[in-house]
## 1
Amino acid sequence: MLKFCSLYSGSSGNSFLVQSNNVTILVDAGVSGKKISDALASLNVDINNICAILVTHEHTDHTQSIAILSKKYNIPIYANKGTWSALGDKKSKIPKENIFYFRNNCPFKLGDLNILPFDIPHDAVDPCGFSISDGFSRICIATDIGHITTSVFDILKNSDFVLLESNYEPDVLKYSRYPYKLKERIASPMGHLSNIEAGRTVNLLSNFGVKNIMLGHLSSENNFPELAYRSVIEQLQNKDINIYIAERSKPSRLFCIEDNKEYIC
């Protein structure tokens, strides 16, 4: 059985908890170490039991506290070569014995977890999502993704639970106060996924039997939870699917995922 919780999700910072029977990991640590420690404590998870932090890419809203957490709690940090090279001074603050490398599209193991980092299109050096399985259930984390490629979709469709970006509503972004260049970046194929594209993706995933989707990385300026939810629901042909929203500033409930079913732990 896998357990999942979105600790924080949004442009202000991202961090996700994944647990198996004997391994507890974080994906990203883009808020302060104290916030992560407090969020874990609220779930009765001891931060000293975190076995690793997996890093999707180098942007600060995904890496803010990796160095302090690694040093304070002796947590190994896993990232690919491109991401490590882009982390600069942050890497130098991590104990050398806690620096680990993986290659995108090459699976590796952490305890009883099978982890596949997969390429995603985003304006970072070498960004990735993660497919995480205990051999029975599979969770996929795919945020900061400009568009859904065939290879990304093929990974997502085999999941029991998917955290999928639903960053912005196109009409809200169009009239927002963001500078034009930033709007272009967000809406580009290497930027972020819109509510419309998220909805299309969720609809297709439902045709492959995916039952549980959490929408994440919602923009605070160009989206809001009710709009993201409605935009996705309106595109669904198959209503036999659970849609959740990852909140920006507090943990979601803790999900137990088993054989394409989820329930509150």
## 2
Amino acid sequence: MDRLFKSGRYVFAASIFAFGAENLMLAHLKQDVVPVMPWVPGFQPLAYLTGLALATAGICIAANLRPRLVSILLGLFFLVCAVAIQAPLVVAHPLDIGIRTTAFETLILCATSLILAGMLPAERFNSMKWERAEDALILCGRYLFAVSCIVFGADHLPIIAFIASLIPAWIPGPYFWAWFTAFGFLAAGLSIAANIWARWGAGMLGLMFFLWVLVLHGPRVVSYPRSHNPNEWSSALIALAICGGSWILAESLGAEAPQAAPVRDRTAIPLPR
């Protein structure tokens, strides 16, 4: 399982790069026809800038080019999007599960970026305030991830019939799998928050998302030329990114993650002779 968990970083990086490529390819289309992305307002220059930034971030994380700094900045980007763009919509429409889901999808990608940053070697900066803020953000990542999972699970419960309708017809027992998914989210979120079998909870959550990509999102993406709905691509990439994020979290909780809590050595103090 360790090898599977170690692949999480590259699955996440590939998803972020694909988000950026999607933004760049779709930003020129009219906003009322094709939504640019769930997190980016319908402003064309910003969509192009966001696409370039996300694609670059994905490359940097995969190629190990200042990956900790890039992960922190990516986490801040998702956090700003969640707070500035999605939170007001959630407040204005508190009963809209779709809006809330989009907000917490953004938040769980923020959490993944911060968790990944915490696994990477610390970088030295001149600003102690920046380093303290960076460390505080990293500590929040795991709990943001857990809360997001709990919200996903709770939001599945009132719409079980709709969730069951998404299960492919060739899979028997759609209602069983709908309930299984809801309680799987709740169990994973509580496990991660309480640190009880948290590594396995995160690992199995990643496996669940990976199966979703293959069984649910894959066929929908293949039908893109007929449906002309780029939201199917976004949904598939979100699921793939959360799959990678779950495995990143599982790796960070493992015994073989010595860099999960890096110690900064800012001064060289000579030892007494």
